[in-house]
Amino acid sequence: VRIERLTIERYGIFADRALVFRPDATLHIVHGANEAGKTSVLSAVGDLLFGFNPRTTYDFRHDSRTLRIGGAFRHSDGRTIIARRRKGMKNTLVDAADQPLPDDLLVPLLNGLSREVFSREFGLTAEGLRQGGHELLKAGGRLAETLAASSAGMAALSQIGARLRNEADDLFTPRRSTGKPFYAAADRRDAADKMLRDAIVTREALQQLETDVREARERLDALNAEHAGSGGMLARWQRTLRVRSKLARLEAVGAELKAFSDLPTVPAQSVAEWSNALDADAASARDIAALDAAEAADFGAIAALAVDETLLSEGEAIDALRERLGAVRKAIDDLPRRRQAREAAEATLNDAARRLGLASHGELLDRLPTDPALAHARDLIEKERRAAQAAADADARHERARQEHDRFEAEEGARLVAVDPEQLRARFEALDDIPAQADRLYWETAALKTEMDSLTAATAALDPSPGALDGLRALPLPDGPTIEAHARAAEYAEGETRRLADALAAADSAIAATETELAGLSHAGAVPTRADLLEARRARDAQFDGLRAALDADHADRERRLGDVVRSSHAVDRITDRLLTDTERAARHENALQRLAANRGERERAAADLADAQAKRAEADAAWMQSWAASGLAPRGPAEMLRWRARLDGILGRLEKSEGKKAEVGALAARLDAGKTAVASFLESVGRAPDPALPPAVLFREAKTRFDELQQAWADAKARAVEKRRIARDLAEAEAARTAAHAALAGQQKIWPAAMAAIGLAGEATPAQAEAALAVWHSVAVPKASHERESRSVDTIEADLRAFDHDVFAIVERVAPSLAGEPAQEALARLSAQLAAMRNAAASRQRLREAVAQRASDRKALMVQRASSATVLDNARRSLDLVDDAALAGAVERLTLRHQLETESAALRRDLHEIGDGRDETVLRQEQEGLDLDQLPGNIEREEVRQGQLLKDIADASAFHQQKRGELDVLLKGRDAGAAAAERAEANAELLSVAERWLLRSAASKLATHAIERHRAKVQDPLIARASLLFAKATGNAFSGLGVDYGDDDQPMLVAQRADGERVQVAGLSEGTRDQLFLALRLALLERRASEPMPFIGDDLLTSFDEDRTLAALRLLAMAGQKQQVILFTHHRHVVDLARSMREQAIDFIDL
Amino acid sequence: VHASEIVCRDPWIVYPGNLQGRSVREAGAKGAMRVSVEDGRIVDVAPIALDGARWAQVPVDVTGVESENDVVTRIATGLAGAHAEGEGRPLAARVTLIGATSLHNRLVARRELLQDDVRASGFRIADDCWVEQLKVKTSPPRSPGPLPSAESLDVESLLAEAAGDPRFAEILSELIETIRAKLPRDLHDDLDQSETLRALADDARALLAGELS
Question: With a threshold of 0.80, does the pTM exceed it?
Answer without folding.
Answer: no
